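User: Can you predict the 3D structure of Attaching and effacing protein? Sequence below.
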Amino acid sequence: MVSNLSDRLRPRTSAAVPGGARPASRPAGRVRSRAALLPLAFGLAAGGLTACGGGGDGPPPSPATIGAADPGTALAGTVGADLTTPVRVRVADAGGRAVKGTTVTWTPTDGGRATPATSATDADGVASTTWTLGSAAGAQTLAASTGSSSVRTVLTATAAAGRPATVRVQGDSSLGLVPGITVALSAVVADRFGNQVTGAPITWRSGDPTVVTVDDAGRLIARAPGTTAIEVTSDTARARLTVRVDAVSAMSIARISPDTLVPGGTVTVDGAGFVQTGAGTEVWVSGVKASVLEVTPTRIRATVPAVSALPCAPPSGGAVTVRRNLGTGIVDSVRRGAVLPVATRRSLRVGESVAALTADEARCTQLDGGGRYVVSVFNTDQSGDRLVFAQLRGTTGGVTGTQPLAVRTPSRVVAPSRTVAAPAPSAAERRAIEGAREHAGRLEWERALVRRAGSPVAALRAARARGDVAGPRLLGRARRPAASRSPSPSAAPSASSAALAVAAPSLGDTVSINVYNLSSRTCARGIPVRARVVYVGTRSVVYEDVGNSQAGTMDAEYRQVGQEFDQVMFPILERNFGNPLAMDQQLDRDGKIGMIFSKVINDSMPNVLGFVTSCNFFPKSEAAFAASNEMELFYARAPRQGEGAAAWRYSLRSTTIHEVKHITAFGEKIARAAGGIPNYEDSWLEESTARVSEELFARTFSNAAWRGNTGYNGVGCELTRCDDRPFSMAKHWTTLQYYYRNVGDLSPFAGSNDFNATYYASGWSLVRWAVDQYGGTDEAAFLRDLTLEPRLSGIANIAARTGRPPAEMLADWALAMYVDDAPGLTPARAQLSIPSWNGREILRGLNTFNSLSYPGVFPLAVRPVTYGEFQSQDLLLRGWSTAFFELSGAPTAPQLLELRSPTGGAVAPTVRLAMIRVE
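Assistant: Sure. Here are the predicted structure tokens for Attaching and effacing protein:
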């Protein structure tokens, strides 16, 4: 206000003149000198006032910030009391300068108050008040604001509980005890506002120590019948608890409900003499301690243990035991029988089967009546590298009591002996096994390669735009007429595409092709081979390494290989799996699959017949793929020194379609990924479906048919070489019979420890079973969908095709191994068969052909057991491996089958059980 008055009284002559010129002078006189004194006086006063606010002649600064004047000082006190020191805040302007004379409003929460409710800032911009805390213990707040409340801060104080005002004993208002019972008492202390006071000293006292005693910790011991009181005090607060000690009465059970107990449910026991406090009463259900929910002198409520904790026993063998511990050496109990359905009752007719697909179902089974059963115990884990222990135990009934059952010694132990002796593999078998393992290892590396490198499509397009995609490098042209090149049967390319396509080679041309070493695990380096074109067909080009020992003498045989591929194999692959040339337009665009036969493979990979690699799907302009041939290419070994052409073709032909099936799957996966990460199939399933391609090829000369139940006649001729057919299905069944002999140790999912590569055959068997059972009327459509699936892989892919959960598929496929074509047995469920093959006849024929190489008429490893008590030795089950048992004999009581761990506890959660009655 002073500044404004000064402005009004200031003569105009004091106004500033633009440009810094001095104001015009007025005539001298009294009026002038009086007028000059007034502005001088007011100007001095105004100057003195405004200096406190930052100087100048303008209005006082506006508050911009408000905060604690004593930052870092913790605010704490007791509920309902003043803080020991006033609370202070400081108000400042935007430049951080103190603002004097502004009003601060104080707003407490939690029932507190501020005295005064408003206060003005001093010359330092500080305002203060006295804060009386509210009634709630914990954090409390006080808001300080100024102006229009837009400038605000909140202070926090910790309020501690006050002096003890009340005390109460937790639990019942009165206790009913019997002599010897010990009860732990506890008390809650609170202040006058009801806030709990922690750490307050508590004193306990018994009104009559002859009835009960109580120590400083609140531990009460009932001594003799009578009634008294327990007094608890804290400061001036006190409480009393009435205690009654009754004489010991007899304990009894009058009724148990429900009539049939439910594992995991609630059981109510009505009776008399129950001890309702402390640990004086225990409830045991069939020898397993239950969780007690509520106890009164006449009623107990408890939770029945879960099935996994209860002993395997018939439903009528349950019991409830109440155990009373009086703490004086007197321990008594009372027991009553109960119906407790732990065992799942099964009553099957011949041909009927059941799969226990939950842990509770599989754990305990009761078989009613006699008969002969085949039981499979299997591990549903979907990794061939994970193993679990299990044990199958047979009993004739459960014994229950007041304590957990001890492990009983069985009358007979069943060893995991196999039905037939397992001969050592021959040298040829060892080579085949080692070759399969090398091949599978490379296939797994291929999956990792595409996951790491991603799709090659974009890089191929860029390389083609630069003119860098050229396929194999031409080294020399053979003499030929200009029009002698074989045309590609693929769709005619556009003019621009044709200009960039690689010219199809002609007979006699020589090219440079990089051959990979399977063990090298790189796409950057290969072994360059000079190769001669020995066949140009409609769907294939065959190259021979000019360095082969028989180079130049095998042209007729190579023509046979190429022609059979063009006329027989390519249509099979295209119809059932996809287009083998799915990536051709991105690569050399010659419309053909290349095949190179080289001694490099003989020398570096003597156990391998042939292989393919995804390296050739990438442009060689990328350093990591510098050895790429930029074409669909199958590598195969050349005939060995002294090996006849017929023997070479006998092993090679089924390998050719097997490997080009991989090219088909790889190419389709890359082409359909649209630049994303190609969904390469799990290696075991990729190998299994490649074996299916061999099977489809074998049908062309064996007269086998889908779901035709082909027997030994469709296989045996391959072994006797009665005609020109190759080694194909005999290879499948040779490996499968080895898998059957060791079925409890092996998995179709392979695994790092499957050194014999039996999963090639067991995986094929699984896929064949799935196609037979769920292929509808179109086998080819099932296989195409399986191959071209864009997201799923492995067993999840098969489950998507069948519509059945994996555990159910394993149960059915496992039983089908035994049941299929078993003499005199027709399963009630068609899923327990493999309609395309008569496996028992084939295995019997192999045994007849050579009993040393193929021991056992039916070599499936089955452990025989008889009704009564038995216990298998430890089963070590891989993911998707199965152990078989055959139960027979004359039962004298209901037979129990229990799955458990070898230590007697619950079996691993992935172990299940299935069975079929066979007689």
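The longest strand covers residues 151-160. The first helix runs from residue 2 to 9.
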